[in-house]
Design brief:
Elements (H helix, E strand, L loop, with lengths): L11 H33 L6 H50 L3 H25 L17 H8 L5 H10 L2 E6 L2 E6 L7 E6 L10 H15 L2 E5 L15 H20 L4 E7 L1 H12 L6 E5 L20 E5 L10 E2 L2 E2 L2 E2 L9 E3 L13 H12 L2
Parallel strand pairs: 3-4, 3-5, 5-6, 6-7, 7-11
Antiparallel strand pairs: 1-2, 2-4, 8-9, 9-10
Helix pairs in contact: 1-2, 2-3, 3-7, 5-6, 7-8
Length: about 375
């Protein structure tokens, strides 16, 4: 595994420069607003009267109001960005200490903090413009209990989704128009938390019931709390899954989610089980942001990020990466030597992952395969 590297989502100096530019824009807009009365008086002094004149005066007044509101909004935006710059500097200072003393999990958590700050700044700026951002990550609510999160999210779910969650005895951790993240099993003091990252078809909201059934079986077989993570918008069809864009877009969200689990359960083993297109997302998160996972499992992949596992940053130097393939899985046709359709081939010996032998069945059969489940159970006993 690669050494945890501090990779902030924001740059404090750039934020400070942006805040200064916003203040200048605010001052310019306010100056224009203040010139409107003078312009009105100048126009009136010409003797301009009548219906057309009244329309012109009204138009000038409207321009003055627009400039005044714009000046206020720009000043507010400048304050928000300047505050974010200050917070980012604090994260940078903390990261210097954590990096010096090789606290890898802390470094990855600070990366997630910077991503969360970026998200919150975006949400605040969108709200200033009258818009709302739908995504509400678990990382943003460290002081809210799972029970309170569940109670807040459940009323927002469609009836079918709510019924599936209730039938599985699940707890909703994140919810939005395109996704629902649910955990089953022990959520009080789990020894292990497994995060399932689904693929192009199984990651769709309509497939939540089936994914919850898989999670419930894994929870019974491993004793772990198992999360069905739907924190990204997967490709809507297999043909669209030939693009890595959705994986790249969701990678930071998965990194933040794992950091949120670390914050709540610091002593628990963190496992990420990725399947199909989800393998690209999970490995992209590990390569580009760092992923707090003690073991990462790559099931039925059409390609992964990184040319070698050493490019991936996981929880620490003892973290492991496992590749799980069935010879009957047609997705293997999308690999050739070290390459695959979506990146590197995880089964290529040069990629460096640990192979799980004896797996059988089709592309959708991994979660019920005895060899895979046994390997997953054994990995818990070695941590």
């Amino acid at each position: 595994m690669s050494v945890a590297t501090y990779r902030p989502a924001l740059d404090a100096a750039e934020l400070s420069a942006a805040a200064a530019a916003l203040r200048l824009a605010s001052d310019a807009a306010r100056e224009r607003a203040e010139h409107v009365p003078t312009s009105r008086e100048a126009l009136a002094s010409t003797g301009f009267r009548g219906v057309a004149a009244d329309a012109a005066y009204a138009r000038l007044d409207a321009f003055g109001s627009v400039f005044a509101r714009g000046a206020d909004d720009l000043a507010t935006a400048a304050s928000l960005v300047a505050a974010a710059a200050g917070l980012q500097r604090q994260l940078d200072e903390a990261a210097m200490f954590a990096t010096r003393y090789l606290h890898s999990r802390t470094v990855l958590w600070l990366n997630a903090m910077s991503m969360a700050l970026d998200l919150e700044l975006a949400r605040s700026l969108l709200r200033l413009g009258g818009h709302e951002q739908d995504y509400d990550p678990l990382f943003a609510h460290p002081d809210e209990s799972f029970a309170d999160l569940h109670a807040r999210h459940v009323p927002t779910l469609p009836a079918a989704t709510r019924a599936a969650v209730e039938a599985a005895g699940g707890t909703v951790l994140e919810a939005g128009p395109a996704s629902t993240t649910v955990v089953v099993g022990d959520v009080v003091d789990p020894a292990r938390v497994i995060t399932m990252v689904a693929g192009a078809t199984t990651g769709a909201p309509a497939k939540l019931e089936g994914e919850l059934a898989k999670a419930s079986r894994l929870a019974q077989q491993t004793g772990a709390a198992v999360v069905v993570w739907q924190g990204y918008a997967p490709p809507r069809s297999v043909p669209r899954a030939v693009s890595p864009l959705r994986a790249s877009a969701g990678a930071d969200d998965l990194a933040m989610f794992q950091a949120a689990l670390e914050e709540r359960f610091p002593d628990a083993q963190k496992t990420v089980v990725s399947h199909s297109y989800g393998t690209l997302l999970a490995t992209t998160a590990a390569r580009d942001h760092g992923l707090i996972a003690d073991d990462l499992w790559v099931l039925g992949s059409a390609g992964v990020a990184g040319q070698h596992v050493s490019e991936l940053t996981l929880a620490d130097e003892y973290a492991t990466v496992h590749v799980v393939d069935s010879p009957q899985d047609p997705i293997l046709l999308l690999r050739s030597g070290p390459s695959a359709v979506l990146g590197a081939s995880p089964s290529y010996v040069g990629w460096g992952a640990q192979r799980v032998e004896g797996v059988r069945g089709g592309h959708s059969d991994y979660f019920t395969d005895p060899a895979f489940v046994s390997a997953l159970q054994q990995r818990a006993s070695t941590t």
